[in-house]
Structures are given as C-alpha cells and as structure tokens.
Design brief:
about 475 residues, Creatine Amidinohydrolase, Chain A, domain 1, Creatine Amidinohydrolase, three-stranded antiparallel sheet, 15 helices, binds glycine, binds manganese (II) ion
Length: about 475
C-alpha cells in the first residue's frame, strides 16, 4: 500500500448521464412557449490588474445547461427545442498561449447542441433568429451590458419590419424559469454536492488538527496557516477553488460576520471560527466549525457552544418536506432565546419571558443573521424564498412593523420544503462586550453550519464527516 493510499479516503466519482444537459435544455424550451427564444451567455472574463485576469468561472446558468467551461460563449434555446451555441473558434496561436478550445465544429457532437458557430458571428446571427419570435428571455440583472446588447439585437430586427419581419414584443426574465429548476437538485447534483461537502469536511478536520499540533509544538499560529491547510485539502481532492472567500477568525475576530482569513495570531485559549467550503464541478459546499485552538474548550466557551449546537439540532429536526423554509430559523431562535436567558446573557428582569425575547427580537444583539440559505451552484443559491403556489392569495399576506428597525415588513408565506432542495443550517452567537454582558463570555463568536438535503421524512446532513459535538472535536484534536 502506498503512503497516498494509506492517508486518503478516495472520493467517489459520479456517473454523469450523457444527456443530462440536453434534458435541462429541453425543459427550458418547453417553458419558453413555441415562439420564445432564450439567451444564456457565460460569464465575462474579469481583469484583476494590468494584464492578469481573475480565474475564470463559467456562469452558473450557462454551466447548468451546457456543462461547458470555456469563456466567450453564449447559448440560445428556442421554443421548438433547438439549442445553438456560440463559442471561441479554433485558433492555433491562441491555443498555444491559453489552452485547448473545443471550437464550433466539434461542439455539437461533444455537447449535444444542435448547431454551433464562432462567437464573432453572434451579432449578425442572433437578430436573424429573433425575427418572428413572440418573446425573448434572458437572465435579468446578471450580466453587465446584456440588456443593451439585447436592445441592439432587437433594433436590428426592427430595421427589417418593413420587409415583413415581426419583432418580439416581450422581454422576460429567464431566471424565474431556471431558478425553479435549479432549486430542486437532481441525483447528479446531489451526488456532486455530497462529494464537495466530504472534501470540505476533510479540510475542516485538517485545519483543526493543524491548529492543535502547531500550538503543542510551540509554533506561531496565524489565521493564514489554517487557511493554507484548507486550500491544500480542497485542491488535493480535485476541487477547483473555494466556493467563497474562506473565513478563518481567531478570538474576537469571530464576531465579525464577514471576516476573511488574515494574518492575526491565534493564541492558546482562543476559539477559532472557520467558515469554508470548496466548489467541486460547479457546486458549492458551505461548512462552519468553531473549535478551541488548543483542542480544549473552556467552561464559558463550552456553555455557549453547546447552546448553539442545541439550536442547530432543533433546526435539523424542523427541516423536512412539507415544512416551511422559515421553520428551522424559528426553531433555532426559540432554543437560543431560552439559552440566552439561562446563561444570563439576557436579563429576564429587563427583557421578560422567552416569548418576549422572540417577539421583541432581543436575541438579535447576539444572533443577527438567518439560519440558512439555499445552497447549490452558487453558495447563496438561486430560488425564491416565498411559496409560489400561495403568492396570489392576499389573505396570506401580512404587514408588520419590525420592533428593532421600525421598517415595515411585508410577510408572504415562506417556501414549502420539497425533497431535493438543499439548504444550510447555520445558527451562531456573537458576543461583543457591552454593558450587562457577563465578562466571561466577551468576544466569544460561535457558528455551526451544515449542509442539508431535504428528504421526504427529514433531511440528510452531507457535511458531517467533520465532528460537531464538542467532546468529539476535542478527541479529534488530541489525535
Ligand atoms: N459562507 C457564507 C455563508 O455561510 O452564508
Ligand atoms: Mn458559511
Ligand atoms: Mn452559509
């Protein structure tokens, strides 16, 4: 057995259905209506500085419908079920510098599209395809400059109206069709997301063990040391990149919600909050663990940790098909509110009962974000958070004033959970020093985040290859 085999559990590779993307394109075509046309560009390349670009990542909608990762490409789907791709032409010199291009000739056989053309012909060919269509669909407010390009293409159609051409009268947001499709993850997507979460869990384990090992060895420990461990584990298992900027926050930095991995020293006795997940083949994972840098929780750290974990357990129990998206959040808030009173972080003589804490949102001082979000190709994935089947019933809409901000909030029925939806469950408590806050809890910031696939009877937590129970984290960090 080689060393490599001995130390790495292999991550399973999925079987990709060859016509998966064609099936998705066909579903879009049906939703367009017979005289509709949809335009789906990939992302633009972005300059980082001078002649260096940011690493290119395909647009999520485009990738969902093609599986194609080259830049400078655009997909068009028409209501008759045909798909046409524009892509970079073959170019020996550019391929020497930038790498292989599929090219329009090979694209139909490789990607299953009906036709493909070089990108340079898009401005002349697309107006011809738009003639005599009823509606043009494209993702609104996603691609900078796309709205004005569509206007330019439509103008070219108008120029031909005197020759009998009809110009589309409707422009519609393609996101509403694609977001509903992407919200329910098919078997291939679920499998990819499981593998992404397994890799991220390994990365968290590695960072926890590195933290304790460095402190035991008397070495300097900085946030970037742990960020490096995460990146190593992501890449060694084939993840293309982190799904979002990793948060590695030592001590009080954990109370900054959007903190990034930086250079701050991490001390013996500090907690470390790591919120990091890899992206694998276009799909994100999103895991947070909070652990003692030296591997042993102090009493106050453990008390707050166990409360956050109990609130997450309540969220997990509330996540099942037929429940509302807001149910896990409400379950979390009920447990946290009781715990804040029990720990003396909220004074019942000032804030009243648990129900008062919930109604007045007094918990907001320590818990100021939602308990989760959709997860998929984008870390904060697309998909409506209100229930579409109940949108048009005015009796289900209520308006209230928020007790803290004074904002008027319109409440619509929250989304009903269905099997195949994927969401995060990520309660936390962030205790900044303030009058009345017991000193033993000052600067403790804890979040616990797992990724859940909704099933008929509950949910499958796909990110639990890294321990979450305090004693199990301590045992892992002793190893
Ligand atoms: N990492 C971003 C989030 O947890 O939502
Ligand atoms: Mn996260
Ligand atoms: Mn998250």
């Amino acid at each position: 057995m080689t060393t490599e085999n001995a130390t790495q559990t292999p991550i399973k590779t999925p079987v990709l259905s060859a016509n998966l993307y064609a099936q998705r394109r066909a579903a879009v075509a049906r939703a367009l209506g017979p005289r509709g046309l949809a335009i789906i560009p990939t992302a633009l390349e972005r300059q980082r500085n001078r002649d260096s670009d940011f690493l290119f990542r395909a647009d999520s909608y485009f990738y969902y419908l093609t599986g194609f990762t080259e830049p400078h490409a655009c997909l068009v789907i028409t209501g008759d079920g045909r798909s046409t791709l524009w892509c970079q032409p073959k170019d020996t010199e550019r391929e020497i510098w930038d790498g292989f291009r599929l090219g329009p000739q090979a694209a139909p056989a490789f990607l299953g599209v009906d036709a493909a053309h070089p990108m340079g012909s898009l401005d002349t060919e697309l107006p011809k395809m738009l003639e005599n269509r009823e509606a043009v669909f494209y993702p609104f407010a996603i691609h900078q400059g796309l709205e004005s390009r569509v206007a330019g293409w439509l103008n070219k159609v108008r120029e031909r109206v005197r020759y009998g051409a009809l110009c589309p009268e409707k422009q519609l947001d393609l996101c509403s069709i694609l977001d509903e499709m992407r919200l329910i993850k098919d078997a291939h997507e679920q499998d990819t997301m499981r593998r992404a979460a397994q890799i991220s869990a390994k990365a968290h384990v590695r960072a926890m063990q590195a933290s304790a090992a460095r402190l035991r060895a008397g070495q300097d420990l900085r946030e970037y040391h742990l960020d490096a461990e995460l990146l190593h584990e992501f890449r060694i298992h084939g993840s293309q990149y982190p799904a979002y900027s990793s948060i590695v926050a030592g001590g009080a930095n954990a109370c900054v919600l959007h903190y990034r991995a930086d250079a701050a020293p991490i001390h013996d006795g500090d907690l470390v909050l790591i919120d990091a997940g890899c992206e694998l083949d276009g799909y994100a994972s999103d895991i947070t663990r909070t652990f003692p840098a030296n591997g042993r929780f102090t009493g106050p750290q453990r008390a707050v940790y166990d409360l956050v974990l109990a609130s997450q357990e309540a969220a997990v129990a509330a996540t099942k098909a037929g429940a509302r998206f807001t149910d896990p959040h409400e379950a979390t808030v009920a447990v946290l509110s009781q715990g804040l009173l029990d720990l003396g972080l909220l004074d019942k003589n000032k804030v009243g009962s648990v129900q008062d804490v919930i109604d007045s949102r007094a918990y907001f001082q320590f818990y100021m974000h939602r308990t989760g979000h959709w997860l998929g190709m984008d870390v904060h994935d697309c998909g409506s958070y209100v229930e579409p089947s109940e949108l048009n019933d005015p009796s289900l809409v209520s308006v209230r004033k928020d007790p803290l901000s004074g904002e008027t909030i319109t409440q619509r029925p929250s989304r009903l959970l269905r099997p195949g939806m994927v969401l995060t469950l990520e309660p936390g408590l962030y205790i900044r020093p303030a009058p009345g806050v017991p000193e033993q809890f000052h600067d403790i910031g804890i979040r616990i985040e797992d990724d859940a696939i909704v099933t008929a009877t509950g949910c499958e937590l796909i990110s639990r290859d890294v321990p979450v129970v305090a004693s199990e984290i301590e045992a892992l960090m002793r190893a």
